[in-house]
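This section describes the prediction task in plain terms. A model, or a person checking by hand, is given the sequence of a single protein chain and must write out its three-dimensional structure as a string of tokens. No templates, partner chains or ligands are provided. The sample shown here is typical of the held-out split.
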Amino acid sequence: MDGPAHSRARRPRLAGVVAAVLLLLVAVTGCVVNTESTVPPGDRVHAQRVDALAAQLPPSTAAAGVLKVGANVPYAPNEFKDDDGTIVGFAVELVQALGDVLGVEAVFYESDF
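The expected answer:
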């Protein structure tokens, strides 16, 4: 049941689920007013896994436990390199949270677009 046709049939649904999660994360982010940070610099907030969404991942991605992400890094604050050369930024944190929700690790690769 995991043949090419089955995989293609799941792609639009997976894309819709991912888009809905991203939209929800962006919407929820705008609903919070903080006067000070509750997360020490260098730490990141982890989101809770949602099994129903994780079940929508392609079997190969779920088995690998990794979501590979290309990032064009000269666009602070979206994505850029910190002093250590690590890819950081708003988009990175958002995709890391998405990885948490899907139960996989988001791994970033520098890429030109």
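For orientation: Residues 24 and 54 are 16 Å apart (CA to CA).
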